[in-house]
Amino acid sequence: MTSRNVSCFPEARKVAIFGGTHGNEMSGVMLVNMWKKNGAEIQRNGMVTKPFITNPRAVEKCTRYIDTDLNRAFTPENLSGPWDEGLPYEVQRAKEINQMFGPKGSPDAYDVIFDLHNTTSNMGSTLILESSTDHFNLQMVHYIKKSIAPASCAVLLNEHPHLKYSTSRSVAKHPIGLEVGPQPQGVLRSNIFESMRDILKHALDFIELFNTGVEFPPCAVDVFKVIERVDYPRDANGNITAMVHPHLQDCDWEPLNPGDPMFQTFDGRAVPYQGSSPVYPTFINEAAYYEKQQAFVITRREMLAATAIRKSI
Amino acid sequence: MELVSLPTLRRVAVCGGTHGNELSGIYLVREWQKRKKREEGAGPVSVVMVMSNPRAVQQGLRYTETDLNRCFTQASLSAPVSDRTPYEMLRSRELNALLGPKGSPKAVDLLCDLHNSTANMGLCIISYSDCDWICLHICKHLQREMATIPVRYIHFDVPPNEAYSLESVGKHGFAMEIGPQPHGVVRADIYAAMQEGVQLMLDWIRLFNSGAKFEGGSVDVYTMVRNIDYPRDPHTRSITAAIHPELQDRDFCLLHPGDPLFLSFSGETLRYKGTEPLYPFFINEGAYYEKGIALSLARRRKVEIPPIHSERA
């Protein structure tokens, strides 16, 4: 008889909640500031949960970033390069955050970091994973989804070699992105705020349970895996020449079939999706991505298998 | 009411990008300027399309140094300039020279300024007058012809000298405000509504100029009474509550004394304490957090409008 496959992980003692990685994504900014004043709600036995504003200058100006996108700044080059006063603000910040919560890849790094984001896209609550083989994270998202049911939560997996990026949360052993929308930049919507708060509550419950020695049985997690990014049609000057089509607008996570309308030019002509098979678009019409050449991202549905997990003795 | 004769509207200005992140008007002006090269505007009216704040548009910001749409009071337009005068104040004088001068016979006959709001306001014609028959008749025309979006008339009771926004430069002027749309996003449905609204306005003007008579009637006018700010922490001035879920997106739904206004982060419902039922609008406009406005309140009344035709008829 073969022994059951159980992945063991050390107790998760150091947990952080990042807000304000983008200074105009208000749910995370407000939640973290609230918890910095009174963090009772996020404390659990056996662990320390640190609420932290990652980009305070951007938060102060209520803008996404000052010099460069902090959530793209945690590259190996940026983190290992020498300190220089002339470095962009966010690169300096990435180095500081890596010192405080990492170093990335080392045994001293924080166990879990939740990074709170909002999107103008109609994505609902979305958990973002960077690895399909982090069984701790897979079990956590499974637990969260079960706990909030019948409310739903999509899981987005971005481990695409070109499209994945160096996030602030990536300094942790187990990074989790929490993206909730739709919410305009600079706006705080009560329902969005409370959804994010509720998801974090369940996430922290999971970690606490895990730390007490509970074994979580094997499970399957339905994820949307990032395949490709689709840009707007643009003219020679780089200006967009079409908008997300009304039939695609707000339809995150719904299948987009070959021939379905994708864009609508300013003079009303539809541009159809010309892929060969149905895909699942998301991040549809995110304000911050116009400058990143992204109208939406294409995903495929996959079922990921998570092994049983338990804390190592 | 007796038939009123009014001068023809020979020169009309349509302005976009007064706020550089309100994208419908920006793309509309750009597209119109592209098409104008191919298509000639019909005879008796000259329409000029203006990008009001090109620097803010280029940077995708509401403004670079100060809100352009607060720079048009007579005092502001005639104050001395120095090399420290903010860009938007200098730009306001350029616009005043191009489209005004405000208060003089040389000013454009009608100025329509295009805006978006994160609030669920539908299409609003915003004017400083409740007896400008041109603006009120245009509103009535849009109400009759636009099937997909509610059209309402908002009145700010401010005398012309103190009127601070761009449309006050024209002999007749109004802002065309359409929401909800996040700043930095162009939604195809909102763009289509603005395109239709501007087209209907221009059609009406051509009809008016050709001597047509427009029957009188009545228009519901919402006159702004006061603003309500968010509850704030007395030391940090940070907001401590969000617009209540029962108020969010309910622009123009009558607010009664005792109705919920805010849901605090600690779970408390804060209620409307006024004694008069009023109509809320600009509920949770992203740009107004820094202006201390969570929502605005208006009184509604029916305004009788006379039949009108142009003087040349």
TrEMBL record, chain A:
Record's GO cellular component terms: cytosol; nucleus
GO molecular function terms listed in the Swiss-Prot or TrEMBL record: aspartoacylase activity; hydrolase activity, acting on ester bonds; metal ion binding
Enzyme class: hydrolase
Enzyme Commission code(s) on record: 3.5.1.15
UniProt-annotated location(s): Cytoplasm; Nucleus
Residue span, Succinylglutamate desuccinylase/Aspartoacylase catalytic domain: 12-207
Keywords carried by this UniProt record: Cytoplasm, Hydrolase, Metal-binding, Nucleus, Zinc
All copies of domain AstE/AspA barrel-sandwich hybrid, residue ranges: 220-300
Record carries keyword Cytoplasm: yes
Coiled coil (residue ranges): none
Annotated binding of Zn(2+), by residue: 22, 25, 117
Cofactor dependence: Zn(2+)
Main location group: cytoplasm
Annotated cofactor note: Binds 1 zinc ion per subunit.
Pfam family, one: AstE_AspA_hybrid
Binding site for N-acetyl-L-aspartate: 64, 179, 289
Active site (record annotation): 179 (proton donor/acceptor)
Keyword Coiled coil applies: no
Residues that, per the record, bind substrate: 71-72, 165-169
HAMAP family found in the cross-reference section: Aspartoacylase
Family: Belongs to the AspA/AstE family. Aspartoacylase subfamily.
Protein name as annotated: Aspartoacylase
Originating species: Chanos chanos
Highest classification ranks of the organism: Eukaryota, Metazoa, Chordata, Craniata, Vertebrata
Automatic annotation (TrEMBL), chain B:
Cofactor mode of binding and number, as noted: Binds 1 zinc ion per subunit.
Enzyme class (EC, first level): hydrolase
A Pfam short name: AstE_AspA_cat
Chemical reaction(s) catalysed: an N-acetyl-L-cysteine-S-conjugate + H2O = an S-substituted L-cysteine + acetate; an N-acyl-aromatic L-alpha-amino acid + H2O = an aromatic L-alpha-amino acid + a carboxylate
GO CC annotation terms, alphabetical: apical plasma membrane; cytosol
Active site: 177
Keyword field: Cell membrane, Cytoplasm, Hydrolase, Membrane, Metal-binding, Zinc
EC number, as in UniProt: 3.5.1.114
Positions of the AstE/AspA barrel-sandwich hybrid domain: 218-299
Highest taxon, organism lineage: Eukaryota
Cellular localization per UniProt: Apical cell membrane; Cytoplasm
Residues of the Succinylglutamate desuccinylase/Aspartoacylase catalytic domain: 10-204
InterPro entries per UniProt: AspA/AstE_fam, Aspartoacylase, AstE_AspA_cat, Aste_AspA_hybrid_dom
Membrane topology per record: Peripheral membrane protein
Binding site for Zn(2+): 19, 22, 115
Cofactor(s), names only, from the UniProt record: Zn(2+)
Single GO molecular function: metal ion binding
Entry similarity comment: Belongs to the AspA/AstE family. Aspartoacylase subfamily.
Record protein name field: N-acyl-aromatic-L-amino acid amidohydrolase
Source organism: Chanos chanos (Milkfish)
